[in-house]
Amino acid sequence: MDDLTFDRHRRLRRTPGIRKMVQEHALRKEDLIFPIFVLEGKEIKKEVPSMPGVYQVSLDHLNEEMDRLVSAGVLSVIVFGVPEHKDQNGSEAYAQEGIVQKAIRQIKTAFPSLTIIADTCLCQYTDHGHCGVIEDGIIVNDSSLDYLTKTAVSQADAGADIIAPSNMMDGFTAAIRQGLDDAGHKDIPIMSYSVKFASAFYGPFRDAAHSSPSFGDRNTYQMDPPNRLEALREAHSDVKEGADFIIVKPALSYLDIVREVKEETAKPVVAYNVSGEYAMIKAAAANGWIDEKEVVMEKLTSMKRAGADLIVTYYAIDAAHWIDEA
Ligand code: PBG
């Protein structure tokens, strides 16, 4: 035994103090972005069945949701709207009195220091549930850009601090950048869902946002999950087109992509910890099969380790409290 040589890695794990000293990555409250779902109507606070703890709220309940967030120390929110009225081209998405526009104005007034991110897409607003507009049964790229740009400008007009386009049409970042600039919003950054896979992990979100496509699927615009080089092409295009942040979505099954995008671009990278990832942990925790807090903190920290600067997560408020407890 005496002449055995090997490395003693356990020296740096011997005490909690030493382990803390050599910890390489940590989750900060500043990293967390909380998604909220707002809808028309009064006195509505409806739990999403497949996402326990996540609520759709009407505007009269919005400030109390925001209070929860602000008092936990979370600094930013991404707003999704569930409109009353849907039509072919998703006109509520860009209406001045659209649900998201109203919510943004309300949050801005009541919580001026919160950073408000607007999700910019058409799927919740179109009667067919696709993220772009349809011509001859096809989701058309270039005409969709006009609607998306109008939506982004209306959200910035309402007071959004960051525009987050998620519809995966080619050129959406370029179109929105130009639209924002022309409308006098040169200083409003774009957080682009540059790398968005056609994922089965979005299922619970579609329940929450009533945004399932009524025909077909999203495979002609969202990416094919096996593809890595395509993710880099998407990220490079978006950087060229003027994206200020790059989102990779979903997060957990795509941490390799988070890492590569981080290394290939000099932009802040955002991992979107999506609804299905949330639902799985909730379900397992409800059964007593896993320790919810430990699992959530481990997975969020693993996203940081993979290279995410920011994380969109339905666990943002809980995680902020757990950071305080640590
Ligand atoms: C809308 C949008 C989706 C999500 C965010 N924005 C759903 C989709 O593309 O079908 C998914 C979020 C989640 O699952 O948490 N374009």
Which class in CATH terms?
A: Alpha Beta
Low-pLDDT segments, ≥5 res:
none
Main β-sheet description: 10 strands, mixed
Based on helices, strands and strand pairing, what is the structural class? alpha/beta
**Morphology call:** globular
Distance between the termini: 40 Å
> What percent of residues adopt helix (DSSP H or I)?
25-40%
Q: What's the helix count? A: 11
* Proper CATH architecture: Alpha-Beta Barrel
> Overall mean pLDDT score?
96
Radius of gyration (CA) equals: 20 Å
Q: Quick one: how many beta strands? A: 12
Tell me the domain tally.
1
Distinct ligand kinds: ligand PBG
Summarize the structure in words.
This protein is α/β, with parallel strands linked by helices and 326 residues long. The protein has a single domain, classed as Aldolase class I (TIM Barrel), CATH 3.20.20.70. The protein is built from eleven helices and twelve strands. Strands 1, 2, 3, 4, 5, 8, 9, 10, 11 and 12 form a ten-stranded mixed β-sheet that branches. A two-stranded antiparallel ribbon has the order 6-7. The relative contact order is 0.13. Ligand PBG binds next to helix 6.
